[in-house]
Design brief:
The protein is an alpha+beta fold and about 140 residues long. Helix content is about 30%, strand content about 40%. The longest helix has 22 residues, at about 70-95. About 25% of the residues are buried.
Length: about 140
């Protein structure tokens, strides 16, 4: 009887923890609010941009935010917004006016898309990593 109760307890624990797993999501960038606006332009994937005058360097950042009560999608968009802000700050510090070829990643799932981004989300947090090239673009 003790074995049966122990097995039942382990089964319930496994069932409870299976809902805690992190999900990898691919979400549309458009819902994140048009990241190529602002004083430092951000171009995802192979988005068209003005000619590059000068390469400044590459950057990458990881972001993890607490979910609070937000939906998984809202949490991912908030994480992306924070990550893009880090890219913009790095560009300003290094006198670049744009970040190009931006890709997103969660663990081994990477997206180099101009329409979607990758995010990992669990019941407690949302996380992603971004990387891109800091550049000075022609001002037209």
């Amino acid at each position: 009887m003790k074995k049966l109760c122990g097995l039942a307890g382990l089964g319930l624990l496994a069932a409870a923890l299976s809902g805690c797993a992190t999900q990898v999501k691919s979400l549309p960038l458009a819902a994140a609010g048009g990241e190529s606006r602002g004083d430092v332009q951000v171009y995802f994937g192979q988005q068209d941009h003005p000619a590059v005058q000068r390469q400044v360097g590459s950057v990458s950042y990881s972001v993890r935010i607490a979910r609070q009560v937000a939906s998984p999608e809202e949490a991912c968009h908030k994480a992306l917004t924070e990550a893009v802000q880090k890219l913009r700050n790095a560009a300003r510090e290094r006198h670049a006016n744009a970040v190009i070829d931006v890709s997103t990643r969660f663990h081994s799932t990477e997206t180099n898309s101009s329409t979607d981004f990758t995010c990992g989300v669990s019941p407690s947090a949302a996380a992603l990593a971004v990387k891109g090239q800091l550049v000075v673009l022609d001002s037209n």
